Amino acid sequence: MSETSKLVIVVGSVREARFGPVVASWVAEQASAHGSFDVEVVDLADFEIPLSLPAASPKYAGDSYPRPAGMAPLTARLDAADAFVLVTPEYNHSYPASLKAAIDWHFTQWTAKPVAFVSYGGAAGGRHAVLHLENVLTELHAVTIRDGLAFPNYFVNWDAGRPADPDAPGYAKTLFNQLAWWAAALQKARAEVPYPD
Ligand SMILES: Cc1cc2nc3c(=O)[nH]c(=O)nc-3n(C[C@H](O)[C@H](O)[C@H](O)COP(=O)(O)O)c2cc1C
């Protein structure tokens, strides 16, 4: 087993003039500083992710699932990942449709892997979005990480691409400590024993 885990940080919003890439960039910096991960930022805006799904379920179709050609690089990155951070805003007390579509087009890519959350928004800091994501990721047999990061009122609490809260890097370290533990444990487990149906 390699000493580092492949971490994919997903930019969940694809909106014009979105803030998501700013948050993801800072998260990537914190992840790299942690030293446990090979870090890659994956921006959903870079891929073809239609809302209309094939008739079959990705759960049972496996590699034969008919995804569009423009989704292939996204699927490859999700496949290769040992751990995820989903960076999500809050839209109408949930997470963006772009992120739901990317999740729903895949299944085994999430299974038996840890997923952490970094959210931002108004007063609730995107917590409604994360509560919904935790539910959804459980259905995909992912392991959700207890300690996430939530940035309320990011428009006044971020400056020059960084959170104003001086404790934010410490909270990120806690998140990455837990994510690294689960990533290594599940990487080993997946290699040793196939995940049960
Ligand atoms: C359709 C829509 C719905 C929103 N609903 C909420 C909400 O329920 N709670 C909240 O805190 N912020 C809400 N916001 C504000 C977003 O959190 C804020 O615009 C944020 O920048 C969105 O992330 P993005 O810039 O990466 O797209 C909403 C924004 C949009 C576009």
TrEMBL record:
<feature type="domain" description="NADPH-dependent FMN reductase-like">
    <location>
        <begin position="6"/>
        <end position="153"/>
    </location>
</feature>
<dbReference type="InterPro" id="IPR050712">
    <property type="entry name" value="NAD(P)H-dep_reductase"/>
</dbReference>
<dbReference type="Pfam" id="PF03358">
    <property type="entry name" value="FMN_red"/>
</dbReference>
<dbReference type="GO" id="GO:0016491">
    <property type="term" value="F:oxidoreductase activity"/>
</dbReference>
<dbReference type="InterPro" id="IPR005025">
    <property type="entry name" value="FMN_Rdtase-like_dom"/>
</dbReference>
<dbReference type="InterPro" id="IPR029039">
    <property type="entry name" value="Flavoprotein-like_sf"/>
</dbReference>
<protein>
    <submittedName>
        <fullName>NADPH-dependent FMN reductase</fullName>
    </submittedName>
</protein>
<dbReference type="GO" id="GO:0010181">
    <property type="term" value="F:FMN binding"/>
</dbReference>
<dbReference type="GO" id="GO:0005829">
    <property type="term" value="C:cytosol"/>
</dbReference>
